[in-house]
Amino acid sequence: MSQFRIRKVAVLGAGVMGAQIAAHLINARVPVVLFDLSAKEGGKNAIAEKAIDALAKLSPAPLGNRDEAALIEPDNYDDLATLKECDLVIEAIAERMDWKHGLYAKIGPALAPHAILATNTSGLSISKLADGLDPSLLLRFCGVHFFNPPRYMHLVELIPLAGTQPELLDTLETFLTSTLGKCVVRAKDTPNFIANRVGTFSMLAVLAEAQKYGLSFDLVDDLTGSRLGRAKSATFLTADVVGLDTLAHVIKTMQDNLQADPFFGVYPRPSALAGLLAAGALGQKTGAGFYKKQGKDILVLDAKTRQYGPSGAKADEIVGSIRRRSSCGPSFRDVCHYIAVHLGEIAESARELDFALRWGFGWEQGAV
Length: 368
Hints:
single chain; alpha/beta; eight-stranded mixed sheet; 13% strand
């Protein structure tokens, strides 16, 4: 195992996340094969080919050189011969456990005997995903959670099974850090792992405060972004970038698996989010979410009227001054309380949790 190197990678699933992971592998000069379903029309690889062609149109650009999209090799699940050539297989299909199990059963016999199988999931149980795997594959199975967009977000969470080979994890972590330039945190196999668990709670707590005081989404973003030492995208613009469907899935994971949590009352899906999902407004990927770009203008959703209007609301300067001098306030209070209760459950130490929030959500000072 000490001589094992990752020379070629397969990515299973040519959706937004899978295609962009493949793109970043090409940025790092790692040969990659992108798989998806066999197309019913056109060539069998048409679905993967369409996803590869779309990479050149995305913003921010997932490729350092858009012409290098042609270096991604398209393939389909009816032709798995190239899997034997791959040292690492990253499954990145939709967050459906039954679909993932079905895919594992299909590809298992085609994997190289030394290959790592890693599932890119935002919070599904790694141990439940491993149910039914061949015992030899259990030793080579783990979770590897890239953050979106994978070219730009530093964090990758690495989530092992109890029986995952330690040498394999070390090899994979070295590849992620040295070859792909990522910052790796090892997480426990708990719902939504570390960053999404705390970050999503923070978003829900902020939204609850916004609804309580009738604050607009753009005003809340002004209060919870740079003023708090967090990413400029703050709360709701971050949700749009991540994808509101992804956010909804992460919230559902918490609803389904954390019913005994004393903070369970914060987890219900917010009505504003439910309305956007029903309208097919999933954030930046669909052109509209909490915000909407119209020509050169950025509009913001009005939670009461459900209509878009001008954005750019700013808090009074006195509020900004108070925020700059103090870390106090409902947002920090609620998150710190949450972490105090759950730290030992979700992370090995405060250090891992702090790095996860810095690298995954752009919080300058972490949270602890």
